[in-house]
Amino acid sequence: MKKLILIGIVALVVFMILKALLVIVSKITEKAFKVSDKKRDRFEFPLSVAIQLLFILIWLMSSEGVANKFGLNNLEFYISFCMIGIFCVFWCYFSWDMEHIFVKPCISKKRNRMIKKISIYASIFIFVIIQGYFQTLHAMDPESEINMMFSVTNYSIVVAIIALDRIMNQIVAYIEERKKENVCICCPLASQNKIDQDKI
């Protein structure tokens, strides 16, 4: 447990240092090029993706560093990798202010949540398929075909189907959201009438 806490402390310290540098560079760039709020909002999501990938990389490097120095058992490695998944889920639902180093997270925009979930579930789907393939190769036994089938089912098919279902769910939700926005833009009067009727 102490090793996992050490991994978390190292990862967070390095991450906050890099975020501080990023905030400083961002403010200097905005002042130099006079970036408007509208343009800054366009880069908010790509920056969020880049920062999340950076955090995952830092976490993996911290885990490797602690493992090389103190050693990690299989359970500690498992928990460390699970923490990456937990952080990714938090990333889907929350966004962090890029103008300040220390700030409370706020709920991210609905469209951003959808895109984040699609990317996370797609990554899980691809990872599970690849992992299931290699796991099957290692578990393959010519004398026990049933073991190979169980391996394929346990490591790929069931989880992959769940992940694919979540991908489709978020894609459909995103398309429906876009349709609603287009209707509101094209027919503002109709949407206002609908709101008035709902109030009645």
Automatic annotation (TrEMBL):
The chain crosses the membrane at residues 6-25, 45-62, 77-96, 117-134, 146-164. It comes from the Bacteria. The keyword Transmembrane helix applies. Keywords: Membrane, Transmembrane, Transmembrane helix. This is Uncharacterized protein.
